[in-house]
Amino acid sequence: MPTKSIAVIAGVGAGTGGCIARKFAQKYSVALLARNPTSYQTLVQEIHSNGGNAIGINTDVTSDASVKNAFSEIEKAFPGAPLAAAIYNVGGGFVRKPFLELSQEDFRAGFESNAKGAFNFSQAALPLLLKSVDLEHPPTLIFTGATASMKGSALCASFATGKFALRALSQSLAREFGPKGVHVSHAIIDGIIDIERTRGFQFDAPDAKLSPHSIADSYWFLHTQPRTTFTHELDLRPYVEKW
Amino acid sequence: MPTKSIAVIAGVGAGTGGCIARKFAQKYSVALLARNPTSYQTLVQEIHSNGGNAIGINTDVTSDASVKNAFSEIEKAFPGAPLAAAIYNVGGGFVRKPFLELSQEDFRAGFESNAKGAFNFSQAALPLLLKSVDLEHPPTLIFTGATASMKGSALCASFATGKFALRALSQSLAREFGPKGVHVSHAIIDGIIDIERTRGFQFDAPDAKLSPHSIADSYWFLHTQPRTTFTHELDLRPYVEKW
Amino acid sequence: MPTKSIAVIAGVGAGTGGCIARKFAQKYSVALLARNPTSYQTLVQEIHSNGGNAIGINTDVTSDASVKNAFSEIEKAFPGAPLAAAIYNVGGGFVRKPFLELSQEDFRAGFESNAKGAFNFSQAALPLLLKSVDLEHPPTLIFTGATASMKGSALCASFATGKFALRALSQSLAREFGPKGVHVSHAIIDGIIDIERTRGFQFDAPDAKLSPHSIADSYWFLHTQPRTTFTHELDLRPYVEKW
Amino acid sequence: MPTKSIAVIAGVGAGTGGCIARKFAQKYSVALLARNPTSYQTLVQEIHSNGGNAIGINTDVTSDASVKNAFSEIEKAFPGAPLAAAIYNVGGGFVRKPFLELSQEDFRAGFESNAKGAFNFSQAALPLLLKSVDLEHPPTLIFTGATASMKGSALCASFATGKFALRALSQSLAREFGPKGVHVSHAIIDGIIDIERTRGFQFDAPDAKLSPHSIADSYWFLHTQPRTTFTHELDLRPYVEKW
């Protein structure tokens, strides 16, 4: 029996990351990276009880050492298994403040969570993804973007700099690693996601929020595209969203 | 038994349109619009022999009357059947010439094939799509774009004006009809498609051309997105493509 | 004494086109193209009384023959004078309607006024501009864009298709004729211009509308850039505008 | 006699920054920020000998404290003088390497030089610019972008993340401070600038490089736009440049 491949998802919790993990766990062993065990413990158990393989690893993606350690743990847990997909879905870095009230830390937060973390994650994942070009689906690296990836709004200087930087990174990686057979994608999530934390956000339409399950389906779709026909960027948006 | 829904595809032939038709024919009755019967006859037979329903209709999409007639024929062939998807995949209008050598007809060709045809097609399809918001998948209108949708290159004034105009139309329709439950999408095909006509185009990599089958899979993916999570625009590009 | 050069402005009247004409008339003979003499008669007199040279020519820019005739008239009025600048500032084509209420003519209007007219104008102007590469300033072709050049809004399918198409044309011409020394620019006017027709539009701020004089200054700035340092595209927007 | 206003330019040396300084010194006292005195000493003398006012201040823009110190020095040198313009023209952070060879420092360099430095500079300049809304020209904050502001190329992950982030910052500031009367602009320099350091870069055309003098003229043009008619973004490109 061939070794089951691995998907690693950075940024799991009650929301989108969790749905992505469940989706990819249907085929792959999954490694779930989050700052706190509370973000992945229940999910790891759920995946196990559904017959899947999952591990959770405490990881601070803004730390090079922490990300390297996470990938060592993955290798220990699933020795010799190829990496099929790596998904960077880290939130955070969202600060909404008048510019002149931003502290140095506030401003840096957008870059650290988004671009710096994605850099650490990509440096660890890409050498493994490059070895997986002969798997059933092209090895895939997906980054989660936002409305702020395309537009720098007032009061959002920190988050927008981080998300713009992440988009630049994803383009640069797609152009360098695409020709080597790695599929690098950037998904622009343009709207409120329907998760625990946003339950209180009310709209006129009852289905005005993005479904995290459908986001996960979209990521799986990206992963299964053959290399003749890669999507680098797509937007995901509720039907009632203004844009 | 509920009535089988319909997908209408404008611009079918040996290439992408044919693959889209086959894909959608797995679930829907399909109506294939093309200028010449030679573009759809074999395909209609093939779909029939695979147990599907298909009709072909001679249509000049640049003619309002011809498009209206096509939709009358569809209603006659599949009376009462709801329209689930409408795909505008018309090529043509590609003229590569120094600007000062373009005739009035050359210049107009890009707009006629792309924007004018898409206007006629959308005006006929949207009233029907609006009635289909309670089907399994949100009713879907997809337009096929190109590299020239995003960039006006030298010698391509005609095609680029047509493709830019088509993109404007698709954005305007998405913003008007999205909130009414219709999924309007625009796919940017950035590369050479691997079809009969491009067989002679040689690249270093053997798989350097877009697979029309994968384009069809992508269109089907767009069609099956729930309305909480619509993609308006995605690019499709071979892994070795420069961009 | 060297022959005074010419600037031709299509789309003059009480607003922006008039201000552009006054600005360019400080250095050049100006030819003013408009559908009706009432759009240019007073302006021609004003420029004469200020010591400038100006002619007005009844022109329907959507007609190839009418534009050709206009350029013949210009040659008759200013024989042998080189063309220094050609500015396409034609409004029109603005139809705001639900998509399903658009007539064939409504939809075509955006393309005709913007792209088709600009095509006719450019085909007549570019052969003359190419002869002017040794003038003091690089020969210049400027197109007036709008918010709708960048975004296809609901109910604006006609205007947006026209303005997107115009932008495609301007990019294609810039890439073909830039290396030949012709400066092709596209100005995105994003806001309400402060002219007679918009006097009734009230905003909180008293200076919330674009100054047509400043637009003219910007066009003059574009014209005077050396070819080492061309601007292809700039936006122009009131300080209080949301974008 | 009214107090002469100030322009502060971060990133001066033999190239563009120096030309911007000379241009703004024709009307304003100028403060020149650079890491090393060798970057500004000759320029300060030249401006003095032409009857202007200039000071140079050793500044590391990536350090909050260093930038605050620079603005204190400016206040000491020109007490009570209003700030008319602040120009962030810092180069650096350009690293061209395969992604997997980038060190943590390499990757961070693009962000530090471009976004972090621009953050420090903007936090120091904006409180002063806000006090200058009644000067002859709207107070102006200009950022120097690059090709990499719009496109993340292979091997350019560090520089592109920094330049994308800078663009995000400039958009966010324009949307927050524009309505308060401050003109925030972003200039995309798309090509090689004709300076000492690029003397060896040969092209077919003798004038294939951007003129730093013309870049300075463009910045001055931006500064003198009235607030009814602000340009947020323009590109600057040699006529022969491919884009």
Provide structural commentary.
4 copies of one chain form a homotetramer. With 243 residues, chain A is an alpha/beta fold. Helix content of chain A is 39%, strand content 16%. Chain A has a single domain (6-236), classed as 3-Layer(aba) Sandwich (Rossmann fold). Chain A has helices at residues 16-25, 41-49, 64-77, 104-130, 157-177, 212-224, and strands spanning 6-10, 29-34, 54-58, 83-88, 140-146, 183-189, 233-236.
State the main characteristics.
homotetramer; 243 residues; alpha/beta; Rossmann fold; seven-stranded parallel sheet; 6 helices; 7 strands; SDR_fam (chains A, B, C, D); 7-alpha-hydroxysteroid dehydrogenase (chains A, B, C, D); NAD(P)-bd_dom_sf (chains A, B, C, D)
**CATH architecture descriptor text of chain A:** 3-Layer(aba) Sandwich
Tally of helical runs of chain A: 6
| Class inferred from helices and paired strands of chain A | alpha/beta
Q: How many angstroms separate the termini of chain A?
A: 49 Å
How would you sum up the major sheet of chain A? 7 strands, parallel
Q: So what's the overall shape of chain A?
A: globular
CATH superfamily of chain A: NAD(P)-binding Rossmann-like Domain
CATH structural fold name of chain A: Rossmann fold
- Fraction of residues in helix of chain A: 25-40%
Compact description:
The structure is a homotetramer of 243-residue chains. Chain A is an alpha/beta fold. Helices cover 39% and strands 16% of the residues of chain A.
